[in-house]
Design goal:
2 helices; coiled coil
């Protein structure tokens, strides 16, 4: 039995993931050298920025161990 929160997550996650996939497809369209000119450095900068942001957002979903240290004698 799904909760309302889970249903909301699924609905929004599917919509947002599909939007991101669509935008990445549009970005890939820029690789057409008949219409665009670009350097390897520009391509690296684009994908480095995307990969960095992707890693940051992925880390938000990872449950991190509590980092508080307990004092003991």
């Amino acid at each position: 039995m799904s909760t309302q929160k889970e249903e909301n997550f699924k609905r929004l996650a599917e919509n947002r993931t599909n939007k991101i996939i669509d935008m990445l497809h549009l970005l890939g369209n820029l690789s057409n050298t008949s219409n665009y000119s670009y350097s390897e450095e520009q391509v690296e900068a684009i994908f480095n920025a995307i990969e960095q942001e992707l890693e940051e957002q992925k880390n938000r979903f990872v449950i991190k161990e509590e980092t508080k240290k307990k004092f003991r004698l």
